[in-house]
Amino acid sequence: MEQEFAKQVADVNPGATSLGLLQISIYEQNGRTHISAIKPESAVAPIRNSEITGDGHELQERLIDLIESLGRES
Q1: At a CB cut-off of 8 Å and minimum separation 6, what does 53 contact?
Q2: Per the confidence metrics, is the pTM higher than 0.70?
């Protein structure tokens, strides 16, 4: 979905693709795994396009669900 979303953003604002719509950092510290991410909805907010913002929100919700499911598996 991220590639499709990035294409939509580029169609609206070609310079915005440098925002890196889905940036995730996964690291271990003190024996625990940590996941940090820039929220896609926040990343596309400067574009000011309701369709793009809505898709960013959907991508963000899917990311949250995925991260939460990883926590349940451990």
Answers
A1: 41, 44, 45, 47
A2: no
- Give the pLDDT confidence of 40-52 residue by residue, as tens digits: 788 778 878 888 8
Q: What is the DSSP string of 1-62?
A: -HHHHHHHHHHH-GGGGGG-S-EEEEEEETTEEEEEEE-HHHHHGGG--HHHHHHHHHHHHH
Tell me the residue length of the chain: 74
Q: Report the pLDDT value the prediction gives residue 17, as an integer from 0 to 100.
A: 53
**Do residues 2 and 22 make contact, with C-beta atoms less than 8 angstroms apart?**
yes
